Amino acid sequence: MKDPHIVKSYDRDLEGIQALIMKMGGLVEIAILEAATSLEARDEELAERVRAGDKAIDALEEKVNEEAAQLLALRQPSAGDLRTVLSVMKISANLERCGDYAKNMAKRTGVLVQMAPMEGAAGAIRRMAKAVELMLKDALDAYIQRDAELAEDVRQRDLEVDQMYNALFREFLTFMMEDPRNITACMHLHFIAKNIERMGDHVTSIAEQVIYLATGHMPEDERPKADRTSVEALRS
């Protein structure tokens, strides 16, 4: 039987790490929404705040890794406890990548505000970003509640994000074919849409970690994907 003091210390350490994860997740949610808002509002100051804010997200990831490594060394968890710590580190890495993508979006906003806006594009990108932000919110809720059903719902919703990305890809191709002067702006907008699509993939990975935590098994079926842009580009 484990020493109750050791068990309490482990629980306290893990709660501290989980609090860092939730703080990190909150910052990433804000970064996603503000990056999309700065594009639609052509707000360079807001875009700059998103870029600067990524440092705080990176710092939290580093702290999660430090504290998780310390917990592993001192408490030597096994079975379910070990699974929890390893999952926390993977979730932290996924959040950090989402923060990087939000920063990349904000960088491109600084370029795009110097160009004429593409009708409807910024609004469509904001809606796509909102869908990913809601996925992340639900994935974090599922993590706290160890809710495999909610996590599976998040996992399935990545399909919608892929479909939104496909629609934007086709729209940007049309804009570029109609007028070559649209190429530069459309390329930047396409990379922003791709950043959001990749965020959806990382949020889906978080959801899969939650399923693993709750059930002890990763999902056996393949993740639903609908990004067909490389194939469609060849056919067009």
From TrEMBL:
Keywords: Cytoplasm, Phosphate transport, Transport. The keyword Oxidoreductase does not apply. The keyword Coiled coil does not apply. It is found in: Cytoplasm. Its main location: cytoplasm. InterPro entries: PhoU (IPR028366), PhoU-like_sf (IPR038078), PhoU_dom (IPR026022). Belongs to the PhoU family. Homodimer. Plays a role in the regulation of phosphate uptake. This is Phosphate-specific transport system accessory protein PhoU. It comes from Rhodovulum sulfidophilum (Rhodobacter sulfidophilus).
